[in-house]
Amino acid sequence: MREDSRRLNDVPDAAVTFVEFLDFECEACAAVFPAIEQLRETYGDRVSFVIRYFPLPSHFNSERAARAVEAAAQQGELEAMYRKMYETQTEWGEQQLPKDDLFRQYAEELGLDMAKWDAAYNSEDTLQFIRDDFNDGVALGVSGTPTFFLNGQLIQPETLDDLTTMIDEALAR
Fold it and tell me: Where would I find the H helices in 46-123?
């Protein structure tokens, strides 16, 4: 995990770090989102939750969605835009038309500085940040989303109970 990775919460000196490589247009990611939120509620004071962008090339708007989230993150609104993308996925996902205007509307709804958001959304640096996450994922063997790592180890839980057990075991070590 890079030091500049996006964190949904920050637990200083956390013994456990949970990383999700995600694609905001991925239906499986949206399906697992409520479970991740539940884990954050349960473990948010003990476990660092990190997201890494992994926009799949087959999803037309996923890179745009990642840019929208990253542009919001640069104004301290990572979590709000992250939630917004999953909560609205049915409005923009699986469509072959660019949804830049809709994503900009979400930024406006969050009260972001739109000049800064537009600059970040269209910035080569933002795109490179997302590509770096993607390339890191590829190097780690990520081929689809969601893919989870617990303390740097690839995990493949099949249920929320599996994931809870894995986190509990990591915390007990």
Answer: 62-73, 78-87, 89-92, 100-109, 114-121
Tokens encoding 101: 């205007």
Q: Please tell me whether residue 118 adopts helix, strand or coil conformation.
A: helix
How many folded domains does the chain comprise? 1
Residue keyed to tokens 């969601």 = 146
pLDDT digits (tens, 9 = 90+) for 50-69: 999 999 999 999 999 999 99
Give alpha helix (H) positions in the chain.
27-43, 62-73, 78-87, 89-92, 100-109, 114-121, 124-139, 160-172
Q: Let me know if residue 106 belongs to a domain.
A: yes
* Residue 42: CATH number of its domain: 3.40.30.10
Decide if 76 is inside a domain.
yes
Classify residue 1: in a domain, yes or no: no
Task: Please tell me whether the peptide bond between 146 and the residue prior to it is cis, using omega within 30 degrees of 0.
Answer: yes
pLDDT, tens digit (0-9, with 9 covering 90-100), for 69-116: 999 999 999 999 999 999 999 999 999 999 999 999 999 999 999 999
**Domain containing 96: what range?**
6-172
Confidence (pLDDT) at 74: 97
Rounded Cα distance between 92 and 66, Å, is 13
